[in-house]
Amino acid sequence: MKKHSIIIGIIILVITSLLFYFQPLKLSNLVSKNSDILVTRVELGIQNGEAYNNSSTYNDLTDEQKNSITNLLQSYSYRRTFGTTLSDGSLSGIGDEMIHIFIYEGSTFVHNISISTTGSISVDDKTYTMKSAAQLIDKIVEIIDN
C-alpha cells in the first residue's frame, strides 16, 4: 500500500511539473512602459528563381508606436517546448517573414525576441512556440509602417 501511495505521489508530481513547465508565458512580461524598443523586419523568399532577404530596421520608433507595440504584446503569449531548456535560440523552418524585437532599459540591453511566421519564437537565446505568431507580425508591421 505504501508503494502504491509513492507511485501516485510521483505521478502527481510529474503531472504538476509538466503543467507548470508548459504554462503560457506572457510577452508583456518582457517589456515595460519605460523600455526602448528596436525592431527589425526580415522578409525571405524566392523571386525569379533567386533567393532574397530584405531587411528593414526601425530604430526611430515614436513613443506612440512603442506604446502600441507594448500594448499589443500584452495580448500574446508563448510556450516552452520539450527542447526549450536545451536550445540555443536558433530557429528552423522560419517561413517567409520574421520580426526581431530588441528591448533596452536605458542603455542596458534586456531582451531579444525573434518571431517567425511559422510560430517559432526565440526569447533570450531559448526556443519556444507561439500560436498566432503570423498575426502578431502583421500587427507589428502595421504599427511600424504607420
User: What are the low-pLDDT stretches, counting only 5+ consecutive residues below 50?
Assistant: none
User: Largest sheet, if any?
Assistant: 8 strands, antiparallel
Beta strand count? 8
Strand order, largest beta sheet: 1-4-8-7-6-5-2-3
Distance between the termini: 67 Å
What string, H for helix and E for strand, traces the elements in order?
HEEEHEEEEEH
What is the 3D shape?
globular
- Rg to the nearest angstrom? 19 Å
Helix content: 25-40%
Proportion of residues in β-strands: 35-45%
Provide a count of the helices. Answer: 3
Query: Which class do the helix and strand fractions yield?
Result: alpha+beta
The average pLDDT score comes to 91
Short description:
The protein has 146 residues and is an alpha+beta fold. 30% of the residues lie in helices and 36% in strands.
What does this structure look like?
By secondary structure, the chain is α+β, with helices and mostly antiparallel strands. The protein has 3 helices and 8 strands, in the order αβββαβββββα. It has helices at 2-21, 63-73, 133-145, and strands spanning 25-26, 36-47, 50-58, 77-80, 97-105, 108-116, 120-123, 126-129. An 8-stranded antiparallel sheet has the order 1-4-8-7-6-5-2-3, with helices on one face. Helix 2 runs antiparallel to helix 3. The model has no long low-confidence stretch (mean pLDDT 91).
